[in-house]
Amino acid sequence: MERLSDYKTLLSDYGTLLSDYGTLLSDYGTLLSDYGTLLSDYGTFLSTMEVFYQTMELFYQTMELFYQTMKLFCQSWNSSIRL
């Protein structure tokens, strides 16, 4: 009778072990999903930074063009005053 009780305990412990293993696999799946989300968010961040860089580059070029325009305007203004 004692062996039957030990066998039942063994089966119960085995069931608990399988349940814990299932929980572990579920947690690992969640971890992989979160890692995928992190990589996706990082990709979005890099894409955003690339657009920001291009915007700043365009802003710099615009300011450079504005400077050149103002320089030409001042030179033109200066030469017209001399006449």
Gist of the model:
By secondary structure, this protein is an all-alpha fold.
In this structure, how is the largest beta sheet organized?
Answer: none
Radius of gyration: 36 Å
Q: N-to-C terminal Cα separation, in Å?
A: 122 Å
* Low-pLDDT sequence parts: none
Mean pLDDT, nearest integer? 94
Helix content: over 70%
Q: In one word, what is the shape?
A: rod-shaped
Specify the structural class.
mainly alpha
Beta-strand content bin: under 5%
Order of helices and strands: H
Number of strands: 0
Total of helices: 1
Features:
83 residues; mainly alpha
What does this structure look like?
The protein is mostly helical and 83 residues long. The chain has 1 helix and no strands. The chain has one helix at 2-82. The longest helix has 81 residues, at 2-82. The protein starts with a helix and ends with a helix.
Give the helix/strand layout.
Elements: H1 2-82
